[in-house]
Amino acid sequence: MVTKPHSLVCLLSSLITLFLALSCSSPPEENLSLKSSGGPAMSLTKEIFGYLPEGQAIEIYTLANSQGMKAKIMTYGATLVALEVPDKNGVSEDITLGHDHLEGYLKASPYFGATVGRYANRIAQAQFQLNGQTYHLAANDGPNHLHGGLKGFDKVIWQATPVKEKDWVGVHFSYFSPDGEEGYPGNLKVTVTYQLTSDNQLKILYEAETDKPTPINLTHHSYFNLHGQGKGNILDHLLMINADYFTPVDKQLIPTGEIKLVKGTPWDFTSPHPIGQRIQEVPGGYDHNYVLNKEEGELSLAARVFEPQSGRIMEIYTTEPGLQFYSGNFLDGSITGKAGRVYPKHSGFCLEPQHFPNSPNQPNFPSTILQPGEKYKSQTIFKFSVQK
Ligand code: BGC
Q1: How many CB atoms are closer than 10 A to CB 244?
Q2: 2 in a domain, yes or no?
Q3: Do residues 218 and 204 make contact, with C-beta atoms less than 8 angstroms apart?
Q4: Residue 68 located in a structural domain
Q5: Which of 19, 122, 181, 217, by CA, is between 20 and 30 Å from 154?
Q6: Pocket test for ligand 1, best of 111, 218, 224 (most atoms within 8 A of CB)
Q7: pTM score, two decimals?
Q8: 146 close to 121: Cβ distance less than 8 angstroms
């Protein structure tokens, strides 16, 4: 009898799941049955997402819990490709902008879901001085350097290792960035670990080590729309940012160096406001770094977003001192993304936990220089819940 394609696919995916279970770091009996610890069922599968023009295969990992949350992450850019989150009626929807196929990411992606580095955000004039030497970086945003340059961490292939623990499933990504890459000094070993927990948190842990002093500032760049991706704009989302200060910018979106109170300005989100309420008063829309209220290095609440129709709430916790709020101003309807949905202006927002833009040239901003022998560590948590 000829095997039907459907059963072939099933057989293949079971084999892949079994392979993953056997190759994970925890003891084999726990890997084969995720229910073994008495915890809720979670799953982890791997597929090929596509091939780069040079022929390298790009893998995609699907993490799922029993609450209806699912995260898909690929090895190209350690990118979050989809994030399904339940609404107040328990209906899950993908709430991140992006593409259904790898080709979309290669053709047109303003950093959808990507891991951004070596330095997220802008470095003025694509240069900085360190220990008396001037370093020239790739200029990819007019005269400035943006999100790690022409081929930043969002455009490289990461090595992936799936991980299963009692209360989470995840993927550990690693990348070796050689000395001089995009102009940065030092060989940098960097890892990013995504974890989906049984209680609807997506946790991201970053670590890095260098052999020469180098600036480093890693972030996650998902565009969220809590209605569901491609379903209208985000102007009605209620946003709270736990920051009394922000860093004003010049015309090229480079911080002026000033640290300004948000009170009495349209940048004040210390209490919840619809994103669209005062956006007309902000030239170009929101694209600013907030100075989070916190003790240095503390993992604390940075922002909360609530979308009343779906009831979805997203909270962001981070150890980072800053949060870039970008209201999707440069989306212009020219990108057709997942499920054939078009992405016009403000169809998604980014909240990027990070150090302040242009820190290597701003001595009054917290330092972003990693020294040999030190370990860079940063954590961000996206926590989901609903309000009826
Ligand atoms: C920046 C924007 C930029 C966008 C896409 C955001 O992090 O703040 O200015 O246009 O990324 O590149």
Answers
A1: 16
A2: no
A3: no
A4: yes
A5: 19
A6: 111
A7: 0.90
A8: yes
Where residue 294 sits, what CATH number does that domain have?
2.70.98.10
Q: 11 lies in a domain?
A: no
Q: Whose CA is nearest to atom 12 of ligand 1?
A: 110
Instruction: Taking residues 277-290, report their average pLDDT.
Output: 98
* Residue whose CA is at the smallest distance from ligand 1 atom 5: 110
In degrees and rounded to multiples of 5, residue 314 shows phi and psi of: -120, 125
H or E segment and range at residue 11: helix 5-23
How far is the C-alpha of 316 from the C-alpha of 147, rounded, in Å?
Answer: 21
Residue 333 included in any domain: yes
What positions carry a catalytic annotation? 221, 352
Provide the domain limits for residue 165.
Answer: 31-386
Q: pLDDT tens across 308-330, in order?
A: 999 999 999 999 999 999 999 99
Q: Is the pLDDT of residue 21 over 50?
A: no
- Residues 258-263 have a mean pLDDT of 98
pLDDT for 325-364, tens place per residue?
999 999 999 999 999 999 999 999 999 999 999 999 999 9
**Residue 228 C-alpha to ligand 1 middle, in angstroms?**
21
Domains identified in the chain, total number = 1
Which residue type is seen at 348?
G
Q: Buried b vs exposed e over 9-21: b needs ≥16 C-beta within 10 Å? A: eeeeeeeebeebb
Tell me the CA–centroid distance for residue 5 and ligand 1, in Å.
43
